[in-house]
From TrEMBL:
Parts forming coiled coils: 34-97, 125-152
Provenance organism: Paraferrimonas sedimenticola
Keyword tags: Coiled coil, Signal
Signal sequence segment: 1-21
Family matches, as InterPro entries: DUF2959
Protein name, entry field: DUF2959 domain-containing protein
């Protein structure tokens, strides 16, 4: 048990050291954590926009499959399966991008707080502390919105996977009819997911604007 604990601590220390070296290398060429954070929020926003398109495409292909019969059924299933895989990949990318935002945010806020303690003049120190609190509050709104939208992807993907596997095992017109009710529920779930992503994208735009104007 102790060996495992030391292993976890060693891995955490190594990861922290790697991140510090990464940010340090960028700062040497004039790119600071604040700039990296803005870029990563932009990347996360673009990943969500791509995911919206992929989930919508997957829904369209499943809808097309429900209207297929005979020899078209296999081909329609293959197209729908490809779109499901693309949606699953897009969802993974969204999670990776959000994780990247959280990573740089932690480093930025730690550095900011530490540097505030090095400011000798009280008025400047208080102003910087207030700016930090405002930025952290905006960030918390952003990351909650991102994670809320992210959390809706998993149940949608699970439902899609269940239906795709069921169809794979029973690829016939009777099976298609059996999942039509599931499709209507799935459509509602995807509509809800896209709405949450739109909210998250709006929060991303607000956060980027606040970081660039402050």
């Amino acid at each position: 048990m102790k060996h495992r604990l030391w292993l976890v601590l060693a891995m955490a220390f190594t990861l922290s050291a790697c991140q510090s070296a990464y940010y340090g290398a960028w700062e040497k060429v004039g790119v600071h954590k604040r700039d990296i954070m803005v870029d990563r929020v932009e990347d996360a926003k673009e990943a969500q926009e791509e995911a919206q398109q992929e989930f919508s495409s997957a829904l369209e292909e499943m809808q097309a499959m429900l209207g297929s019969d005979g020899g078209d059924l296999q081909r329609a299933y293959e197209k729908a399966a490809d779109e499901y895989e693309s949606a699953a990949s897009a969802a993974e990318n969204v999670t990776e991008r959000i994780n990247g935002v959280e990573s740089v945010a932690e480093a930025l806020f730690d550095e900011w707080q530490q540097e505030i303690g090095e400011i000798s003049k009280a008025s400047l120190r208080n102003t910087s502390q207030r700016q930090l609190r405002d930025t952290q509050r905006n960030y918390q709104n952003l990351i909650r919105s991102m994670r809320r939208a992210e959390s809706k992807m998993t149940p949608v993907l699970t439902t899609m996977k269940d239906n795709m596997l069921y169809l794979k095992h029973n690829l016939n017109a009777r099976t298609i009819g059996a999942i039509e009710g599931e499709f209507n529920s799935l459509k509602q779930d995807i509509d809800g997911l896209i709405k949450e992503m739109n909210k998250s994208i709006q929060e991303s735009n607000k956060f980027i604007e606040s970081m660039q104007s402050s």
